[in-house]
Amino acid sequence: MSDTVHRFLLVEPADMDRFEGWLEDMAHRGLHYRHSGFFFVHFRRGEPASVRYRLEPMGSLWSRESQDYCRALGWDRLGQVGRDFELYRNPDPDAPELHTDPVVRACGLERVSKTLRLRCAAILLCLALYLVSAFLAMRPGDFWVERFVSGSALYLFPLALELLGIAAALRSFAAFFAIRRRLRRGVPSRRDGSWRWVAGSNIALLSLAGAFLLFSIWFFCASFTNDGWEGELDLVSEPYPILELRGLEGDPSMESATSPTFLERFGYDAHNYVHCRRYPLLSEQYEVTQFLTDGGDYEPRLDMEWRRLSLPFLASPLLDELVYRYTEYNRFPDEYIVSELALAGFDRAVLAAGNRWPGQKLFLQAGNVVIYLDYSGARDLTARPELLAALAQFDGR
User: Fold this and answer.
1) Residues 6 or more apart from 98 whose CB is under 8 A from it?
2) Segment 141-166, tens digit of pLDDT
3) How far, CA to CA in Å, does 154 sit from each of 38, 149, 206?
């Protein structure tokens, strides 16, 4: 069995008292400090002992006289820890301390204090720049809930990871400044078992960061391998939700109004088309477009966005965003008359009727299903509630 044991760096060296207390508790368990890296601390197995560890600012005891003084008191230099400190060890629990005056020790931490302040300012500046860039990345007219359920909020995961890392760093910086203020008041350092709750909180942050990282990698890969599909309404074999425009019009003899431009350039009829998109753990979405004609001047149109969300609590906020996006967000807010309706089978229903030409926009929510209907024609979308109820009950088969 190897005599070296590796442990995560559970307590940051900037949290000086707790870092020293952690190493001393590990020595009581027979694990003696050997050296440290960026993420891990390496211990040597041995006999349990009452060993003291002390952190000193880098370079503060580098002179020959200082090193001779430390060795005379029984303190051995073990090397650098982190960016700002070096570590000393004394196997004698009764040997004199390196510093007996808390105020003098606080003065010796001045250079580290300046460095940590600059580092803290740099971290907060980078966070501010990242938040601004994330905000600018949002396209005009997009909204948070809709972006999330549409799988276009992947950039939020790196932001979450960065926030977790910043939280851990700022907590250790705050602990350092709290220690320094206490020393300046003449209160000596205290090393107790409080390092355990700090280590526990860091483990929780590390676990959460790992979960975010794994989920973001999985989400990114799954977003490019989803089983979405699309096609013309008369040709697709996959099931999809649809409010039949012919049924709404009450005239089964009406014919599909094709799109000559798309037929000529791309070879398909975009006027009667369905898109299906499935986003892992987020939503299943369908976009259905229908154009009909009576052979004369009347050509009704119906566009539908149908979403089944994996997170039901987002359904109502998504409906609010859709209403705002397609009505109040319009340049002409008096274009629609917006009203809440009570429709059987739906938790919420919002109707936006056009003021200037025939047409309606209907927003529906039934559980975790959110539906947006944009109708241009002479009928009333709410006149056939049985068709709407069947639309909300689509289960993918």
Assistant:
1) 54, 56, 61, 70, 73, 75, 88
2) 556 677 777 766 555 666 666 777 78
3) 28, 11, 20
Task: Give the count of beta carbons closer than 10 Å to the beta carbon of residue 122.
Answer: 10
| Residue 105 identity (one-letter amino acid) | R
Beta strands in 82-149, from DSSP E residues, in sequence order: 85-90
- The per-residue pLDDT of the chain, averaged, comes to 83
Amino acid identity of residue 46, one-letter, is: G
pTM equals 0.62
Asked if residue 173 lies in contact with residue 109, where contact means CB atoms within 8 angstroms, the answer is no
- CA dist 363 and 372 (Å) reads 5
Question: If 0-12 CB within 10 Å is exposed, 13-18 middle and 19+ buried, where does residue 302 land?
Answer: buried
* Phi-psi label, residue 30: left if phi above 0, alpha if psi -120 to 50, beta otherwise: left
Per-residue pLDDT of 34-43, as tens digits, reads: 888 878 889 9
CA 377 – CA 207 distance, rounded (Å): 55
Alpha helices in 51-100 (DSSP H): 64-73
CA 191 to chain centre: 36
Q: What phi and psi, each to the nearest 5 degrees, are found at residue 230?
A: -160, 165
- The pLDDT assigned to 338 comes to 86
Measure Cα distances from 155 to 151, 216, 262 in Å. 10, 9, 34
Distance CA 65, CA 72 (A): 10
- Check residue 143 and give its pLDDT: 66
Q: Are strands 85-90 and 76-81 parallel, antiparallel or unpaired?
A: antiparallel
- DSSP letters, 149-202, are HTT--TTHHHHHHHHHHHHHHHHHHHHHHHHHHHHHTTPPP---TTHHHHHHHH
Of the candidates 317, 309, 316, 314, the one whose C-alpha atom is nearest the C-alpha of residue 284 is 309
How many residues would you count in the chain?
A: 397
Phi first, then psi: give them for residue 90, nearest 5 degrees: -135, 120
